[in-house]
């Protein structure tokens, strides 16, 4: 379970204080597929970064499975990212030098596992996302949709508490996008908690719950089924 | 986390992909290590060969009693033998000779008491070590000589054969009575040694009743210092009692300058190598910023990223250092001949037969290479820590100007420059005897200045660009303006390239100017000292002192009688001990010298020299001597003579670069009176006006050539040869300078290449909106030239200053203030031209790459 | 033994004889050498003329002639003077020995070209001269028997003469570690001698033509060969007299400088 209590993020630009996020309180339950929506600059990505431990809040508290993400050292935060969070980015962010399998296995490699152990796991996950034929290909040899699948596979290899996706289809055509959403949905159905940032209502509709941000704070929270809080 | 995992899976791929870049970056460290190794080995080999020679020549002797060049009475032998604690005191006559015929090689002749000498020296280990068919005959005849087997084989000489040898006493004929295997003294001077009985040597070399040296061994258990003191007490004053190790130390001191100057340059190579590593790691960090961001997002800790970069550096620099060590061995082998030749030319006979090295030194040099690399990489690697995981998600084409622009760096830069100037001022203010006045001080100042300036390069580049935008870029059109902007966008990375150029240009300019100054000063001095038309010596005039054979003083009369000869000036030089240190004593006919030579006086007048020196106990000293021993005009110094110490007045200070250990000038009449030495190393002949120099020298040779072999060299040729020798001794330094410059060129290539690779997308955009290929190349080359020009300007300016510091610390400290700084303007022009030209050249390949970028690919995926 | 020392050495070694003393009981090594020593001592009072030929490895040959004088004194003291006559290069080169006892001696050499008498230091006398075969030992007279240990190895016949085979080991290491000598029974002179450096035989000598002169057995021919260098020296006595009783002033440094004249 992920919990935000009055989380806020403020940047200084010279003397000005800019609030990217203010006083967001949110509980994300295990097994949820949360879509975060909102216009550009509404603080979606900032929220995602805070949940993923890429960044720390300037106020408030954040917990993943009751472990605080605020007020801890960079190294502790890094370990949480490594073990509890999986990221999927808009620009895929694969390492161009590595093969698909190596990219997928990277989090485990970082954890010191030897590649001979990592490789079968990576291969099985790649098969799971439908890339059984692409195991030894490098990113430049893959299509956009395939790259994003590799990124998803990399995000879930460590059985993270939450999978975070930031506009995962922002760079893909609609057909490919749908495939990615279906993949995410099926992962969610297998029990994977997912938080996805998107500005596309159609995409958001794949989630089980939609939170809308406006000017750095939640303006709407809908569980699919019509409930509103 | 497991660093080896990352190294294996990520770094290795980078290395594979960027072979060229890696190769260039590491070549710096590789060459730096190679230079260090080569210098260590060459030093060690040269010193070892001296040490071996001395050890073999001295055997078990722990003390050596000597006095002056002309030896002392052999009755001293009984005096020394009688000193309690002395085991054996054996006489030695040591003289230089030359084979007359064959290879005309220089031969050292050692006269020893063959009936006793085996107590001190090992002539044999087995029966076969010597082949002396008739020892009794060897002892009975005064023309007996023993040669080494190696020399006899080389010259095709057999036992019982007669050989002719040029000696002090003219050409002598000896009979070879036996051959020695290479044991003990037979190994001295690479086997170019001959052994005679002491009494035969006395007769042959006009030293009846005299010996040059007494070698002393001590009874077991005797206290070295006490016996030394007792001997000192037993012999008259003026005798020098030294250890063989002391002689090695003297050699070491003589060679020190030679080693220092090369060592300094090798240090510089290492620094340039560090720059390259720094440069390449910095670029790598910038280039892989996104990769680092992703890894950070996936859970790689800061420390792990830093360690990853350091790990990469460790592995690659270890390989580079290893190759560097191997390369160093090759360099050493290639250069040992030149170095030995230079040492022989300038200092003393060096015959290095084999390379000497210690594994410890090789390992140490390799480790220095690795540590230097790590130190260089540490700074940029640490900057990785600033890369946030979020930067992986955002897509920024450039990194923010980070680590090189911090306030700390600015402060450090300013502090170092101020420190450097403070040191310089303190140095200039300090008295001559102050402990500050060492080359270490000036070296520190030069180092701080250079490092300080290179840390300041970002700021300097910024200023330079401001200037560029204001005055130059408006004339260069779009590519020029764009190039300036590009540089401005990543000042810190470009500053690194600039620093590499700066550093090498600075090094080049400084060493060229320091050398030019010494060169000019020395040449001016040589021209002022050698004003004769013909130089006459029994070997090549260049070899006098080092391995020359003096001539009798009476020869002057015969030379004077040769038609066409106007004046003949005798010249004798040798080393004497002053305050326990060797200094050079040069004697000549001062009045005559003053008449013809515009010799440079630092203190005192030429009239003083003419009036005070001849026949009187007065001397003049050179500036180096005056500085080193705190002697001024009007003081007096006590010099050891064979008859005991004599007090000499100092009538003036002169300019002389004959020796860096201090020079004393004396009138030859005074010398002959006090030292009882009537020999002459060189006659300087002036011919009557209108006479043909060649004819006169031919006439001199005809007259004298029968009894001894003489060289008569026109002074002009002699001066030219000295120039060549000096230039040769600097050749190694020049070579290293060139290497440094090439490395710096590589540095620019790396920087530009990385910049192009990184901006693939941007260049794609520019091309898509209509920029021509030639314009793209133009931008890249302009950037390159700008970096080069900025680095060149800065380097030339600081090089001038560092050159002056080098001159101050490495030459003036020993040779005196008369050595003035001569700026080699041509070198400045060259430096600027080179830095700009080299940079343009370095930009070519990246420019080519940039212009070939595929627009669609560049835009599709970054 | 091919070196000049052979002159004096062999002079002394050869100039030895003694009336035979028949022994019924088996002799010890020391007892054999006591006899040898006795003869050597008697032979010290002598004058002899000899020729020496040195051969080197390549077959080169050098001849020389010499005259030797000897005189015994109180206790074990003795004096020896040796002067070379030919070749011209060695004319009047001489050696003089003053021995206070068999253990203590002074040695001088004279070289006319230098007009200089040179003392050869006592300490050097055990060592070889300049890595050559010449040992300063060879300049001296009989050694002090107490400095050696002796061991009978057996009996053999050399040149049809029955000999004791004795191993002689110096107590202080010399150039050789030991030698084995074949000492003719009743004559008490060496017939054959082999010098060893540890296990290795390095020089070997043969003596023959033993004649009894004035009651002293004297081998008139001798040869010494160095196995390592291949050098060989032959020595032949042309004339020998014993009990010559020369005056002391023949054995002075002045006399050495004048070649015994």
Description:
The complex is a heterotrimer of chains A (229), B (862) and C (261). Chain A has 229 residues and is α/β, with parallel strands linked by helices. Chain A is built from seven helices and eleven strands. Chain A has helices at 44-51, 74-84, 100-110, 115-128, 144-156, 174-189, 201-204, and strands spanning 2-13, 16-28, 33-37, 59-64, 67-68, 85-88, 162-166, 194-197, 209-214, 217-223, 227-228. Chain A has a seven-stranded mixed beta sheet. In chain A, strands 2-1-4-5 form a four-stranded antiparallel beta sheet. In chain A, helix 3 crosses helix 4. The two termini of chain A are 19 Å apart. In chain B, 58% of the residues lie in helices and 16% in strands. The model of chain B is unreliable at 395-401 (pLDDT under 50). Chain B has four domains: 1-60 and 244-396, no CATH class; 63-242, no CATH class; 423-439 and 454-531 and 723-862, no CATH class; 539-709, no CATH class. Chain B is elongated. Chain B is built from 27 helices and 24 strands. Chain B is an alpha+beta fold and 862 residues long. Chain C has 261 residues and is mainly beta. Chain C has a single domain (5-144, 215-257), classed as Lipoprotein localisation LolA/LolB/LppX (outer membrane lipoprotein receptor (LolB), chain A), CATH 2.50.20. Helices cover 11% and strands 46% of the residues of chain C. Chain C has three helices and 13 strands, in the order ααβββββββββββββα. A 13-stranded antiparallel beta sheet of chain C has the order 6-5-4-3-2-1-13-12-11-10-9-8-7. In chain C, strand 4 and strand 5 (105-111) form a beta hairpin. Chain A binds chain B through residues 45, 49, 52, 54-55, 74-75, 78-83, 85, 87, 89-91, 93-95, 97-98, 102, 106-107, 109-115, 139-140, 154, 166, and chain B through 1-2, 5-6, 8-10, 13-14, 17, 290-291, 293-304, 388-390, 392-393, 395, 861-862.
Set down the secondary structure blueprint:
The complex is a heterotrimer of chains A (229), B (862) and C (261).
Chain A: E1 2-13, E2 16-28, E3 33-37, H1 44-51, E4 59-64, E5 67-68, H2 74-84, E6 85-88, H3 100-110, H4 115-128, H5 144-156, E7 162-166, H6 174-189, E8 194-197, H7 201-204, E9 209-214, E10 217-223, E11 227-228
Parallel strand pairs in A: 3-8, 3-9, 6-7, 7-8
Antiparallel strand pairs in A: 1-2, 1-4, 4-5, 9-10, 10-11
Chain B: H1 3-17, H2 19-58, E1 63-66, E2 72-73, H3 76-81, E3 86-99, E4 106-112, E5 130-131, H4 135-140, E6 144-148, H5 149-155, E7 162-167, E8 170-180, E9 193-197, H6 198-204, E10 210-211, E11 213-218, H7 224-234, E12 240-242, H8 244-287, H9 289-298, H10 302-346, H11 359-383, H12 407-429, H13 439-455, H14 457-472, H15 477-489, H16 491-529, E13 534-537, E14 551-552, H17 555-561, E15 565-578, E16 581-588, H18 590-596, E17 601-603, H19 606-612, E18 618-622, H20 623-629, E19 636-641, E20 644-654, E21 663-667, H21 668-675, E22 679-680, E23 682-687, H22 693-704, E24 711-714, H23 715-758, H24 760-768, H25 773-815, H26 825-851, H27 855-860
Parallel strand pairs in B: 4-9, 6-8, 16-21, 18-20
Antiparallel strand pairs in B: 1-11, 1-12, 2-10, 3-4, 3-7, 3-11, 5-8, 6-9, 7-8, 13-23, 13-24, 14-22, 15-16, 15-23, 17-20, 18-21, 19-20
Helix pairs in contact in B: 1-10, 2-8, 2-10, 2-11, 2-23, 8-11, 8-16, 8-23, 10-11, 10-23, 12-13, 13-16, 13-25, 14-15, 14-16, 15-25, 16-23, 16-25, 16-26, 20-25, 23-25, 23-26, 25-26
Chain C: H1 5-14, H2 29-43, E1 46-55, E2 61-72, E3 78-86, E4 94-99, E5 105-111, E6 116-120, E7 148-158, E8 161-170, E9 178-184, E10 190-197, E11 200-213, E12 216-226, E13 232-242, H3 253-257
